[in-house]
């Protein structure tokens, strides 16, 4: 028996319609966090973006701080902090503070930054971001461990730097690296003993290298004396489900095209389609689930077949459907997808199957017992009549 019990979470980039009020959308996201907690989801990962219009959270730490106060149990992760955009001392201090404020309910996810527009506005060349990410991470971990750091690179300088607070979580909060199609995420995870956050797990390029990147991470970890843990391996994919496939297809007409137009701008592998063609492309390529709970189960099991066991499936939140249909999608996921993987109903099914197998015998015994009760009743009546006639 495996000791890995699949957990379930949300990846909140987020993707929001440009025509709606950002104030309303941010409050709705916090309400979603409360809903996800009530439904039994385990964690929520929050993205960082600074351009493009749809992905409106620029500071995952700020959002998590508010959402953590509105919830009690669910964990949060930065998904991710783009390290090349920040001084590493500032990142270490913010993570340590957030770790204290949430009493250990936060994971520190990091990456090089996805949007070229974000890097361009800061005059950062995208080809430099992966190396800068690794430089910053090395310093951040040392600072969170309590070390004093004096170091100068081409993009930051630290003098006798020391984190103001040591983390609440000991020895460190969970650290997770974003991994997509390239091997850099696996190398970073292995080198630093970090968890892996596979943000493009259902994309054809990302899916094809799931097992390869994990192997790279494990081999690199061994070189550095670390051990990778599948319990902390997370795979991300977009999902919208309804009672029927027809209803799910109708639901996503609300917002799929706006998301598709944005995806065309920021993705290295855009679909170049709209409307029914886009929907068909997403489904046929297995990039997303737009269907029923059974379709969601099939996708996750397909990932398990490719990746092997992993700890958490993160449903990527996408505003493809209106808020009511979106909430319904998460409710259906909690009602049917979660218990499938937890095998929650295993004994209920076994008990019902046993009852069916024993039905003929049980019916006969029930009839015997019923007949005996009637016979006893009639005998009692007869005895009472005899006594009354004496």
Short note summarizing the structure:
The protein has 390 residues and is an alpha/beta fold.
Task: Summarize the topology.
Layout: E1 7-15, H1 22-39, E2 43-46, H2 60-69, E3 75-78, E4 81-82, H3 88-101, E5 106-111, H4 116-121, H5 129-144, E6 149-152, E7 157-161, E8 175-179, H6 184-192, E9 195-198, H7 204-208, H8 210-223, E10 233-241, H9 245-251, H10 256-266, H11 275-284, E11 289-291, H12 293-307, E12 312-318, H13 323-342, H14 346-357, H15 359-389
Parallel strand pairs: 1-2, 1-12, 2-3, 3-5, 4-5, 5-8, 8-9, 9-10, 10-11, 10-12
Antiparallel strand pairs: 6-7
Helix pairs in contact: 1-13, 2-3, 3-5, 6-8, 12-13
Protein name: LLM class flavin-dependent oxidoreductase
EC number: 1.-.-.-
Family: Belongs to the bacterial luciferase oxidoreductase family.
């Amino acid at each position: 028996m495996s000791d890995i019990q699949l957990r379930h979470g949300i990846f909140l980039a987020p993707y929001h319609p440009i025509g709606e009020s950002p104030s309303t959308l941010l409050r709705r996201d916090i309400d979603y966090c409360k809903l996800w907690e009530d439904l039994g989801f385990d964690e929520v990962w929050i993205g960082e973006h600074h351009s493009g219009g749809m992905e409106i959270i620029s500071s995952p730490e700020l959002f998590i701080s508010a959402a953590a106060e509105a919830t009690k149990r669910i964990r949060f992760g930065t998904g991710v902090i783009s390290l090349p955009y920040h001084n590493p001392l500032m990142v270490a201090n913010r993570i340590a503070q957030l770790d204290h404020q949430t009493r250990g309910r936060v994971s520190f996810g990091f990456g090089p930054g996805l949007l070229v527009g974000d890097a361009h506005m800061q005059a950062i060349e995208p080809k430099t971001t992966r190396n800068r990410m690794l430089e910053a991470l090395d310093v951040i971990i040392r600072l969170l461990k309590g070390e004093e750091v004096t170091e100068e690179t081409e993009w930051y300088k630290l003098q006798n730097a020391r984190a103001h607070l040591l983390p609440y979580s000991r020895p460190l909060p969970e650290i997770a690296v974003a991994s997509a199609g390239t091997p850099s995420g696996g190398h970073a995870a292995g080198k630093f003993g970090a968890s892996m956050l596979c943000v493009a797990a259902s994309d054809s390029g990302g899916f094809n290298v799931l097992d390869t990147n994990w192997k790279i991470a494990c081999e690199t970890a061994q070189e550095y004396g670390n051990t990778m843990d599948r319990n902390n391996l997370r795979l991300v994919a977009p999902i919208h489900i309804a009672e029927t496939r027809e209803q799910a297809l109708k639901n996503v007409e609300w917002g799929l095209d706006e998301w598709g137009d944005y995806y065309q701008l920021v993705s290295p592998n855009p679909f170049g389609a709209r409307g029914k063609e886009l929907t068909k492309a997403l489904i046929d390529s297995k990039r997303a689930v737009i269907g029923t709970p059974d379709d969601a189960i099939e996708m996750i099991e397909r990932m398990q077949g490719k990746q092997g066991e992993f700890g958490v499936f993160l449903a990527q939140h996408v505003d493809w459907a209106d808020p009511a249909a979106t909430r319904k999608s998460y409710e259906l996921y909690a009602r049917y997808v979660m218990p499938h993987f937890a095998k929650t109903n295993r004994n209920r099914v076994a008990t019902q199957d046993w009852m069916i197998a024993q039905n003929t015998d049980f019916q006969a015994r029930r009839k015997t017992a019923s007949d005996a009760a009637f016979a006893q009743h009639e005998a009692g009546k007869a005895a009472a009549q005899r006594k009354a006639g004496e």
